Amino acid sequence: MSVKLTSRQVGDVTVIDAAGRITLGEGASAFRDAIRGFVAKGDKKILLNLADVTYIDSSGIGELVSGFTTVTNSGGQLKLVGLSKRVKDLLQITKLYTVFEVYDDEAEAVRSFH
Amino acid sequence: METIQTTLDSTLQTADKAEDLAMQEAAKLGLDDDAQHQVGMAVRECTVNAVVHGNRYNKNKRVHLQIERSDSELTITIGDEGEGFDLNSLPDPLAPENLLRQSGRGLMLARAFMDDFDLHPRPGGGTEVRLVKHASES
Questions:
Q1: Interface contact flag, B94 A25, Cβ < 8 Å
Q2: What is the ipTM of this complex?
């Protein structure tokens, strides 16, 4: 199963619920296209919920970074919530914990945009 | 000692196959779920590297996978038929100036997840990665 992305609004924050695998190929490109689409329609506050993501490889990590850069360069913010222990470990190993704002709780993450 | 030896196509599906085989052998070794995942991901990253950067998706080139399982460890070698490269020539993905690069983390993750990691020229051409995971580390 590749990644499935659905979005919802919580106030002015766009929450993207990701589910499945973000890996090289279809999963990573679907993720990239989705982030660019949200930015293109003017979304500035994006919270990426990874609670149902079962697997991320280095290409998936690269797409998270690319998404972060895309959103930041458009003047917006991209934050993460709902990371599994394995994804947290990946961010630790790659030192990306120092780049991303990561939250365990969605309400807290939404509040952090204001 | 149980040995699996196979040659695989230079496609991304090969990464799925190699990962599945490695995880099955990791389970037989008695590694826990997290360690199985680490072995699978390390093999996936190295196989993707072999397909994408080594063989460059060339359908005439093959990926060579060998998995040896003893009572105490798993030894996995993944070889490609590419032009070879120097590991030291790769940018450090942990350097502050490289943190926002989109790629370049695969081999670093493989190294982090395994007990031993060695990359060397493959006899006959190409590059070979040797990964070892000890049972006692689980």
A1: no
A2: 0.88
